[in-house]
């Protein structure tokens, strides 16, 4: 790190002088544009094909509740959810402007994901000096954190973006000393509160403490104005949310759902310790997969679940030592301030999954941990690159004893004419030896390799971390490629399209697709558009598939998920035959077979007396039983005589 006064350019920034030549200005512009263009292309490639993928398990819940908001219902007062309402208003806004089609939501999500990728790069660039090494964290974010759930809509997606925006604007304040950056940073933290309350509260608290305590050490002036600016920005969205709930008489219900319920029912529901959860997940995966896939998934889960907290802990120690050293020497280190901002937000992102661990959340919130993993990595492995006549990115270090140990990759392209003359180059560079140089006569690419010395344990550790990070990216890509080949080998069709009220979606599970179509046909033929159904346990996407409204206040339920009062409310509605039909999925049976920790905490022996299941068995009868679903009709005839006749004819068939 290099100590700089407040007027100097911050890490990753490029000062512009009056005497800057046009060629250097073009090089600087290309340096800022090319990485983002490359990341955008990778993002497009990674997201291709997911535009109409079938709903994820949780995703239908957000769609169902967004449609409820469009119908005029008020969250917490008219229906239950335990997170703050940002994501529901986000989806409802898209539906209201662009129409209720799943493709519209996912197109907007693509733009948000592209923004997250670029934000990750910009933050990495301010911690990692090499612009090419700074590409690795966003690439890992694409391939590890998002690859398997790229189009999933949930509150963590939006709050994660807000966390990155908060960090970015704090860093911009360090670079520019402009209060509007703090207002924007506070607004991002406030929007995080409106989307995921536990992460948002942590972000606001961390941001305020950072502005109050750390900023004065660097800026040498009072923290009053910066603190007011940050808090003012945060209070705008939070105040708007509170005002909306108060105006609709839902403020007390909101507190009960998002605070009281979280610290009582939900806390007991997710009671597995973080590292205990990781061990159970590993054992479950290895026990149910073939050997190759078990090893591959075991490495993947172990690295994603255990590497980020260790990296963040090491980064915290490093930051603390540097901060204490600078404090004793009365040094103002703006680069260390930037490092600390990114570290603070990275810890906040990861801290939210410790109390309720989940593989998907862990992958998603590990983003900034990758920044510090790579920053440690490149201290031993340098990537100086020079592209002559096109873009001068980084001047290579001088030859001789002063060359740092590690892998030095120097790429020097010939003129455009030479490259164009050999448009069909050989694919191999023809390296002559493992340590030395080789130049391809076809492409003009010159590669220099300096074999690293691994005598030092620290350099050996860096090398191992490098291999692990690159292996993770390879494993996730290979999973997609090999998984597609495996589906073909097993005779599974690639895509089967299903028509829903939100547009067509596809799945690769032929049996599941057939069951969905059968259930949809039965519901459409057995009920009219004004009647309501109830889907349990965790299949709220069925409301979107069937085009029928939810008869109860609860879009999702699992054993142990609701408290006694909420269970009693659902049981009473079922006993009164409020839903015209009830659709039961088989997710509890699947979770039981997989050894899910929530089912074990609830007690497998208690499943037979689970309140909702008992109420359905006592008040409804099965009329359609499939592999993935079972449809139940009331024991007594429904209130509508026409529907009663339809049901009777369906049963007689």
Question: Quick gist of this model?
Answer:
This protein is of the alpha/beta class and 653 residues long. It is built from 24 helices and 9 strands. Mean pLDDT is 77; it is low at 1-17, 381-459 and 638-653.
Termini separation comes to: 77 Å
Poorly predicted tracts of residues: 1-17, 381-459, 638-653
Percent strand: 5-15%
Major β-sheet strand ordering: 6-5-7-9-8
Total DSSP E strands = 9
Q: How would you sum up the global shape?
A: globular
Estimated structural class: alpha/beta
Please outline the major beta sheet: 5 strands, mixed
* Rg for CA atoms: 28 Å
Give the helix level as a range of percent.
55-70%
Helix segment tally: 24
Mean pLDDT: 77
